[in-house]
Amino acid sequence: MSAPPTQPGAAPAARTAPTRRTATLTYQGAGARRGPVTMGQANMIRCILRDEPDAINIHDVWPVPEGASEDAVLDALRALAVRHEALRTTFPHEPGTVPGEQVVAGAGRFTVTVLEHGQLPAPAAEYAEAVARDARSERFRLESDFPLRPVLLTHAGRPVFLALAASHALTDGSALGILREEWLTLLSGGRLPEATALTPLDLAAEEASPAGRRRSADALRHWERILRTGPQAMFAEPGAVGTEISAQGLTLRSARGARALAGAAQRTRALPNTVLLTAWCLLTAHRAGQQECVAAVPTSNRFRPALARSVSTLSQDALLALDVRKPSFDAVLAAAWGAALNAYRHSRFDALALWDMIRRVTGERGSHFARDVVLNDISALPATLAGAAAPDGDAPELELVRGPEQALPTRLLGFVYETDPVLRLALWADPALFPARAAEGFATGLVRLLEAAAEGDVPLADLTEITSVRPVERGPGWTRVDGCWVEPEAVARTLSAALGGLPVEVEVEVTGACEAGDPAPAAPLLTARITCEDGGLTPARAHAALMAALPGRPGVLAPHRYVIVQGPPRQPASAGPILREGTGRDREM
User: Mean pLDDT across the chain, nearest whole number?
Assistant: First the structure.
């Protein structure tokens, strides 16, 4: 178990280890059922089988109301298991195979670990958070485990916190928020209304219908368009390396930000969440030096009434592409709502089909899609982890608090928990691109942009002056090719290494020169010239070798044309006779 944090500068207090025991709860559900998995479940099962458990499991801490007994806490958990099919669901499958079916049990049992303390370590809330995080480290067995791993923390016999880890195959953050809200209602003596949200099996049936299959196909076309035309990575720049980063959390709490957001929404007559999304995308694209902001916005599926209170995992990305080549904030805001709706409509898909399409399209384009930017705005959902928590006791004008580190497969992640009376936003940013002060500057720059937008329309040419966030400096060796920032020298180095050290030169060539008066710009393309002594290399083999080396190198794009020339190993690639040339791709671009 993780060591509980201590107060800064204070010596750890001596304390007695807690006494551990286990309570076993049995339940009788409404009936057994079975059927196919949902698209969201299939998506998360894929991640669970690939990722480490502490990276894919989720957790939460539920404070126990004053006066609630241990029996009441456990009875409320039992009631939730009876009420929600997801908590009675397993995924039977043969070893080495991927589950394709879910089974809902009519009856069963699960355990709760009880840690009895004579004195809870201080700060107690941070200790409970550490216990919950520690519970994430053990893998959930999809075929047999109850999807919650609860740990009840007691002080002198009184329950104080329920710290729990959860399987992401059956819950997401919003589902945990719903469960916590209902658990608190039961502990207060309240009655829960009839559950009317779609169950996972009902959702799977809807997705398998002809209309559901059409929606999934439409979603794949939406993603393919963005993958073929948008930047392969938002942060293609010096220092952006690797496919996973470890970043320290940073939480912004700002009454100034909340007032500014409300003012900007009132001035523009737009929804506050759309205004915030626009500001986030503008500042991100400005910092990254991009003409378009491509971001994942994962909460979109819960805005459907039938799914708003569904206890299941609906974790599938809506992929937003917002063109920021506009003169002002209001002009981008006018396009943001339509772009967001388009992303939301296309956020339910067959995950396996999606990744097959991504592999095909990126291979044809010579790119590697990087999920660099994620904004998860859960502030407007009916039940969230933030909404079920106690409200802030104060409303600081602007406060930034550092939190624990987390490993993430993205470079900029934002969680919006609350927009009124404070703007509460958690941020994780790649420290190679956003050192501590730069990450703080991004968060405060977002508040400054909202304040300016509340006063009037903001010229985008003034973003640096208004926000103090500066665009990245890439240097003269970088160029924009096929909508992506590329460093041709890095392409040459990477291709040479992938081919065992063969000499490679990469040039940017402009094709399709414009006729006089033709407004269409010429398209810059990459050409690689490779020296090969024995003549056995083909464009297809060169392209395949480079594609295998692309992940983690966002400034490298595959050449559009490979020219293989004959010559000794140290001879420049431009000197020898041409042996063969071509794209190396399955589809001409």
Answer: 89
Q: How far is Cα of residue 334 from the mean position of the Cα atoms in its chain? A: 25
Under 8 Å between Cβ of 539 and 584:
yes
Q: What are 162's two structure tokens?
A: 């329920």
Residue carrying structure tokens 């040039």: 507
Place of tokens 């943001």: 336
**Tokens at residue 368, please?**
């590697």
Q: 352: Cβ–Cβ under 8 A, 6 or more apart, which residues? A: 42, 46
Instruction: For Cα atoms 451, 230, 336, give the angle at the middle one, nearest 5 degrees.
Output: 35
State pLDDT tens for residues 324-363: 999 999 999 999 999 999 998 898 888 889 999 999 999 9
CA angle 422, 426, 427 (to 5 degrees): 135
Whether 285 and 292 have beta carbons less than 8 Å apart is answered as: yes
Interatomic CA distance for residues 41 and 287, integer angstroms: 35
CA–CA separation, 344 and 369 (whole Å): 20
- Token couple for 89: 């669901």
87 to 288, 389, 391, 527: CA distances (angstroms): 42, 22, 28, 55
Q: What residues have CB less than 8 Å from 441, skipping those under 6 apart?
A: 468, 469
Query: In this predicted model, what pLDDT tens digit does every residue of 198-236 receive, in sequence order?
Result: 999 999 999 999 999 999 999 999 999 999 999 999 999
Q: How far apart are CA 190 and CA 185, in angstroms?
A: 5
If one counts every other C-beta atom within 10 angstroms of the C-beta of residue 545, the result is 18
User: CA 130, CA 119: separation in Å to the nearest integer?
Assistant: 16
CB environment 6-17: b (16+ within 10 A), e (fewer): eeeeeeeeeeee
User: What's the residue count for the chain?
Assistant: 589
370: which DSSP letter?
A: -
